[in-house]
Design brief:
The protein has 14 helices and 17 strands. It is α/β, with parallel strands linked by helices. It folds into three domains: 167 residues, Rossmann fold (3-Layer(aba) Sandwich), CATH 3.40.50.2300; 120 residues, GAF domain (Beta-Lactamase, 2-Layer Sandwich), CATH 3.30.450; 150 residues, Histidine kinase-like ATPase, C-terminal domain (Heat Shock Protein 90, 2-Layer Sandwich), CATH 3.30.565.10. The two termini are 61 Å apart.
Length: 529
């Protein structure tokens, strides 16, 4: 964190007033004739009903003010400009409203051109401008105090302004460092939630959320206040008009709800206000969203690297055992063929041997699939018929789920010839069917059913696998095709859908899904040729 900033600037054309501020904020013992002059000035400016001994009592602040002064607006502006150039800004600036040359209002308008962060306090005995006029001219980040008032008030106002400036400055510094943090997702979320709370407090908001744009919708990442409730958060997200950010690139306000959108990063913030909203602090929201988005992206990249390393390890391990497995299962299949000859007069035994042979072959196929996936092997294409592929899926399903009564419907339309790797497409469709059957069984879905449909759509061949299960949990929908993600069914490596996606994309096709509590439909499309 940067050094605590306690720099104060007083801009006033009256020297006695500037001396009075110095005496209050940085009291020093005086033995010269100026003490009486200071007391008279203080009496005029502050509590003019008292006469007392010179005040040497330090302000109530727990730090020492660094005091500077300027006799007019232009000098004050040059001092602020110089301080900003030296990266040593003022935390608070007291400005007299009536001054020769630039008056207080014009002075602060110039100041805001070089320093938008300093806390500005107007001090005057005259009501030349209303609060609304001041805010319209120089923004919300100002306060207005009329003479006379107690000297203790000046100390309190200055102390509060300095603390406020440092709090915001430290928050900005923390936000700026978010994207450079090397944190895991579970560590990042509470940190961002804590900063979101501070940003909301600064803006005068009661609750807030951060959401990330996905292919289908904005997904809530974390929230505070009432927006922790998913139903409330969803209602606000769905209420956002499609053209909300046409007039302003990233800011939209409607009925006490303020939306911020950084399209470049696909990130959205919502703040629920209780009436007033501090527009002067909007820059902090933008800064926070940009840094939060980069931090989330960094976590995604770290996790992608870990997944890649996992896949590399899986591929290496599988490669090491693949040769031995093939030899082992080769021996098994040879033994099965010998048994088959000896038991040719026993049909039930032959059927059992066929099942064992099929299982043995499936084990080798699984090993090969993982090897192909880890090595991102190129697809070998031949002429094939999707209707035959789907019928084979039906037969395989009957073999694997013989004891489970799940109606299996097939609807194939017209000519379904295509060019591709028939075995990989078969395993892709069967994987989807197998996943559906496992979920339907484990979730005890009433009247379960699975439907496969296939048709040509222009130059593509489209296959859909549908079920009437409970749907895919929202929290994994966006990461469903990422390796090692699994939910809703027992067992599994988390590689199945990742392999399916790679096989489909290897055919220059695509796969997507739609899901609800009434079921899920996976749709894969591959070019016919």
């Amino acid at each position: 964190m940067r050094t605590f900033n306690s720099k104060i600037l007083i801009i006033d054309d009256d020297e006695t007033i500037r001396d009075s501020f110095r005496e209050i904020l940085c009291p020093q013992k005086r033995n010269d004739g100026s003490a009486q002059r200071l007391r008279e000035a203080e009496s005029a400016l502050f509590d003019d009903n008292k006469t007392s001994e010179p005040r040497h009592k330090r302000s109530s602040a727990t730090f020492e003010f660094i005091f500077s002064e300027a006799s007019n607006g232009k000098k004050g502006f040059e001092m602020v400009k110089k301080a900003m150039a030296e990266n040593s800004p003022y935390a608070a600036i007291f400005v007299d409203m009536r001054m020769p040359g630039w008056d207080g209002l014009e002075t602060v308008q110039h100041l805001r051109g070089v320093d938008k962060r300093a806390e500005v306090i107007f001090v005057t005995a005259y009501s030349d401008h209303s609060i609304d006029e001041i805010v319209n001219a120089v923004g919300n980040n100002v306060s207005y105090h009329c003479k006379p008032f107690a000297s203790e008030e000046i100390a309190q106002i200055a102390t509060k302004a300095v603390y406020e400036w440092n709090k915001i400055s430290n928050l900005e510094e923390l936000i700026n460092n978010i994207s450079s943090l090397r944190a895991q997702r579970w560590q990042l979320k509470p940190l961002l939630s804590n900063i979101l709370q501070q940003v909301a407090d600064l803006l005068g908001a009661e609750s807030a959320l951060i959401a990330l744009k996905t292919e289908r919708h904005f997904e809530k990442l974390f929230a505070i206040g009432s927006l922790l409730n998913n139903a409330v958060a969803e209602s606000y997200l769905s209420a956002l008009p499609p053209d909300a950010f046409e007039d302003c690139e990233y800011y939209y306000q409607d009925s006490g709800i303020v939306y911020f959108n950084i399209e470049k990063f696909g990130i959205l913030a919502i703040f629920e206000t209780c009436g007033s909203f501090n527009n002067e602090r909007i820059y902090i929201v933008r800064l926070f969203l940009e840094q939060a988005a980069m931090a989330i992206k960094n976590v995604d990249l770290q996790e992608a690297i870990i997944r890649k390393e996992k896949l590399s390890a899986v591929g290496q391990a599988t490669s090491m055992i693949a040769h031995d497995l093939k030899n082992i299962f080769g021996g098994v299949e040879m033994g099965l063929e010998i048994l088959e000859k000896d038991l040719k007069d026993n049909p039930s035994a032959i059927e059992t041997l066929d099942a064992v042979k099929t299982a043995s072959h499936d084990c080798i196929t699984l090993v090969n699939d993982i090897l192909d996936f880890a090595g991102n092997k190129e697809i070998k294409k031949n002429d094939a018929d999707m209707q035959i592929v789907i019928e084979n899926v039906r037969w395989k399903f009957g073999q694997c789920f013989d004891g489970i009564k799940i109606p299996f419907e097939i609807n194939c339309e017209g000519d379904l010839l295509f060019t591709g790797d028939e075995k990989k497409i078969f395993r892709s469709i069967f994987n989807l069917v197998k996943n559906a059957a496992e979920v339907l069984t484990e979730k005890h879905t009433p009247d379960p059913h699975i439907r496969i449909s296939a048709r040509k759509d222009g130059t593509n061949l489209v296959v859909e696998v549908a079920d009437n299960g409970p749907g895919i949990p929202r929290e994994i929908q966006e990461s469903l095709f990422i390796p090692f993600v699994t939910s809703g069914k027992g067992g599994g490596t988390g590689l199945g859908l990742a392999i399916v996606k790679q096989f489909v994309e290897g055919h220059k096709g695509n796969i997507c899904f739609r899901t609800s509590d009434r079921g899920t439909v996976f749709k894969m499309a591959i070019p016919v040729k």
